[in-house]
Write a structure and sequence with these properties.
By secondary structure, this protein is mostly beta strands. It has one domain: Jelly Rolls, CATH 2.60.120. Helices cover about 5% and strands about 45% of the residues. The protein is built from 1 helix and 9 strands, in the order H-E-E-E-E-E-E-E-E-E. Strand 5 and strand 6 form a beta hairpin. The longest helix has 11 residues.
Length: about 200
């Protein structure tokens, strides 16, 4: 279900307004788009803290789609984060194939034991949001029994060329994958964006 903009400000309007404050006045002339940026970290059954996007430039597809820019959007690119999603999957260490049947959200109970925060240019803009916000009991925007996405009450703008990081803290480790496989945890930031449009927009 789409978010209702109670303030009357659309994601596009907020994107342009925030970038104007940084002197990026040309953003309004760029191509509007939908953006999903994601990063993937391995889990071994012992980690309780995960820092996504920080070193994503050192990882390649399919583990991230940030490319060589890493945890910074490129020149002329910007994004409004409307939703944050987490999910897990297993990958066979020999064949490299993913077990799509095992793509899940957090194991039962772990979503009640986690917090995440988000920083832009070392300034915290989301602080200690519990993962329970992504469950049907707490999230008024969904009726799914085990959703992975958390729709933000306040949309966050990522300007170009500023580093960003999401930190997830769990009270207990994620159970390790079966022998011969590695379990990966994925974080995706989802929203409306703008990308360079050197000739025209659509």
């Amino acid at each position: 279900m789409r978010e209702i903009y109670k303030s009357g400000i659309t994601p596009q309007q907020k994107l342009v307004g925030i970038n104007n404050k940084f002197g990026n006045t040309g953003i309004k002339d760029q191509q509007g788009t939908s953006r999903i940026m994601y990063d993937t970290l391995p889990t071994t059954g012992v980690e309780t803290v995960f820092r996504f996007f920080t070193d994503s430039a050192s990882r390649n597809f399919p583990f991230t789609n940030t490319g060589s820019d890493g945890n910074k959007l490129g020149v002329g690119d910007t994004m409004v984060i409307e939703q944050i999603a987490f999910y897990l999957y297993d990958r066979n260490n020999t064949t490299g194939k993913c077990n799509f049947g095992s793509v899940t959200t957090f194991p039962q109970g772990l979503q009640q034991l986690g917090l995440f925060s988000f920083e832009i240019a070392n300034n915290r803009v989301i602080k200690n949001v519990p993962l329970t916000e992504g469950t049907s009991e707490y999230d008024k925007t969904t009726t799914a029994n085990n959703p992975s996405g958390i729709i933000l009450e306040t949309q966050i703008v990522l300007p170009p060329l500023l580093n960003y990081e999401l930190e997830l803290k769990l009270a207990a480790p994620i159970p390790a994958a079966s022998e011969g496989s590695t379990k990966f945890l994925v974080c995706a930031i989802i929203g409306t964006g703008g990308i360079i449009a050197p000739r025209t927009t659509f």
